[in-house]
Amino acid sequence: MSFLNKFISRGQKENKQPIYIVSGLPRSGTSMMMKMLSSGGLPVVMDSIRQADEDNPNGYFEIELSKKLKDGEVKWVYEASGKAVKVISYLLEYLPKDMNYYVVFMEREIKEILASQHKMLERRNEKSLISDEEMTAQYNDHLRSVKYWLPRQPNIRVLYVSYNSMMNQPEELCVSIVNFLELPLDVKAMREVPNPSLYRNRS
C-alpha cells in the first residue's frame, strides 16, 4: 500500500489530495522553494498583498490568511488540496488535523538568517528588539521542538532541505524533492530558480 493510500485509509476522502506545505524559519528560503515548486508545475496558494521587493525580488508567495491559523482561520486550508502553501514553522501545529500534508522544511544556517533579517530591518529603518544571542537561542529551541513534533503527526510527511546545499547542488536536491512529493514536476525548471546572485548573506 502506498503512503498516499495509507493517508486515504485513515479517513481522508479519495477526491482530496494532500496539501504541499513549504515551511521553515523566516528568511530560510521558503519563498525560493515556493517559486521552485510553482516553476515546476505545482499550483500555489498565494495572494498579492505582499509584493516582491529588494529583500525578495522573486516575490514572497504568501497568503495572508496563513498568519491567522492560530486564531482558528482554517477554512481556506481545505481549498488548498493538491496545491503548495507557505506556512512558517511556528504555525504548523495549527493546521487542520483532518487533512494530510507533505512538508518541505527549509533549513538555513542561523547566522545567515540573522544577517538577512538585519538587512531587511535596516531597509525599513527598524531595529531588532532582542540580541542575536537571544534570537539564536529562541530559534534553536523552536527548531528542536518542531522537529520533535513533526514526525509524531500521523497526517504529516516531512523532507528537510538545506538552503545552503540548494545553492550549491540544486539539481540533486530538486530530484529528491520531486521524489518526495511523488509529483511529475519539471526538475529542469525548478533547478533554474536558485540564483547565486541572491545568496547575499553567506556565513
- The CATH class turns out to be Alpha Beta
Corresponding CATH superfamily: P-loop containing nucleotide triphosphate hydrolases
Taking the sheet with the most strands, its summary is:
4 strands, parallel
How big is the Rg? 17 Å
Helix and strand succession? HEHEEHHEHHH
Helicity level:
25-40%
β content, as a range?
Answer: 5-15%
Structural class: alpha/beta
Question: What is the topological layout?
Answer:
Elements: H1 3-9, E1 19-24, H2 30-40, E2 84-86, E3 101-107, H3 110-123, H4 132-149, E4 156-162, H5 163-168, H6 170-181, H7 187-191
Parallel strand pairs: 1-2, 1-3, 3-4
Describe, in plain words, how this protein is organized in 3D.
There is one protein chain. This protein has 203 residues and is of the alpha/beta class. It has a single domain (17-193), classed as Rossmann fold (3-Layer(aba) Sandwich), CATH 3.40.50.300. The protein has seven helices and four strands; from the N terminus they run H-E-H-E-E-H-H-E-H-H-H. Helix 2 links the parallel strand 1 (19-24) and strand 2. It is globular.
Short summary:
With 203 residues, this protein is of the alpha/beta class. 36% of the residues lie in helices and 11% in strands.
Keyphrases for this structure?
7 helices; alpha/beta; 203 residues
